[in-house]
Amino acid sequence: MTTQLTHDHTAAHHHIQDYIRELTRRVEGIQVLEPGLGTTRYSHDAATAKAVDASGNPGPAVVLPATPAEVQAAVKLAAERGVTVVPRGAGTGLSGGATADLDQIVISTEKLIRIIEVSPLDEVAVVEPGVINAELNKHLEPFGLFYAPDPASFDISSIGGNIATNAGGLRCAKYGVTRESVLSLDVVLPDGSLISIGHRSIKGVTGLDLTSLFVGSEGILGIVIRATVRLRPIPVARKTVTAFFNSTAEGAAGLAAITLSPVRPAAIEFFDTPSLSNIDAHSGTALRERGAALILIEIDGYGIGDQAADLATALTAAGGRVTVESDNDAVRLWELRRSGRGLPQDKWYIGEDIAVPKSQLPKVYAAFPALEARFGVEISAVSHAGDGNLHPLITKDKTPDDGANPPASLAEAATELVKVALSLGGTVTGEHGVGTIKRDWAALELSERSREVQHSIKAAIDPKQLLNPGKAI
């Protein structure tokens, strides 16, 4: 067995070395990182970093194209040689979608960072995939425009990665997820050919909607090398409103008051009791002194005073203690939402990304106590409540008997929580994607025929299964 493994590893090594030699011969000056300890960080994304870094194993070969033509050349050669390719953005993904083995080539788009065009009158920008979300918005400020999708990792996540996972984030409540802001894409297909899909115009229904198919396809259908994205005017005003409640259940019930009001906030975030305690412990804050649950809201646009007053009336009637926060306090509160929670260092844990129709959020929170009692775990969740997307954190105390692996009950609790979401008309992943981590859960959601259709589409575009095999579907 060992001999066979060694033989396979050596054969794969030679195969990759041949690929590197031929690529550098064909494309003068293309940057390629040899496999080894220097590329370990390219073998994982943010979700799988801990396990990979702890292993101390070498990483894969990495191609760093600087132009779309270099991406094409790298993919075309991989197709000729039968080398499988893992496309990669900034590596901030949370589903294992960018994990790579030593017998694969990583093609990273991190050097494709040009903002090619900003058209204020068309309200579009044309960008390469390596552009960082926050950098694009800095560039757009002088035009009075902004790119609306803002995943919590917006400071470090790239537009290409956002497109690959159909990233969501905080402002989805009003502006939608990435898909709603992508008009057209230039994509390198698995054979190295380049196609343009979608339309620069807002309207356009010629042919099948391939743009929606590629957005969220997790790198299994093609590599985006250029995107035309929709822009919006920077709102004339933004305000943050908080509503604290006496319990998680009261706070979750209070969310309905926002939906029934005439106000459409840009962001609506909900924190249960343990999440507030976690933030206080991790960030030195005192949120729990203000209440046992929090709805954190951003409103924007004209009539901001009227919006705030209508929200305050609705949330006060629902039992909330409402404050229109100062600008400084608002900045701090949103920082806490994005990075205030700590992950337990002394416990086993699993993070989830389920979503339900937003009216069903209270039922998900109500299901936590029974699952905690059944599996001996603790469950908390922060939610993008405006669109029903929860990020539960399931923890379990470590015991001397556990060994190196978490007890089975932790994963069982996570699966049961996924089943709760599905029973309420929800989904196993709202924004992180399936990657490698959630394939078993995806099988609970998708019918066999639905999966067959998806595999057929993959086979039509990538018959040799060369692009990010084993991910997403």
Description:
The chain is of the alpha+beta class and 473 residues long. Helices cover 37% and strands 20% of the residues. The protein contains 15 helices and 18 strands. The protein has helices at 2-26, 49-55, 68-81, 133-140, 159-165, 172-175, 210-214, 248-260, 273-283, 304-317, 327-339, 361-375, 408-423, 439-445, 448-461; strands at 31-33, 61-64, 84-88, 104-108, 115-119, 124-127, 145-146, 182-188, 194-198, 223-230, 232-233, 238-245, 267-271, 293-300, 321-324, 347-351, 378-384, 389-397. The strands form 4 sheets. The protein has a 7-stranded antiparallel sheet, with helices on both faces. A 5-stranded antiparallel sheet has the order 5-6-10-8-9. A 4-stranded mixed sheet has the order 1-2-4-3, with helices on one face. A hairpin with a 4-residue loop joins strand 17 and strand 18. Residues 1-5 have low confidence and may be disordered.
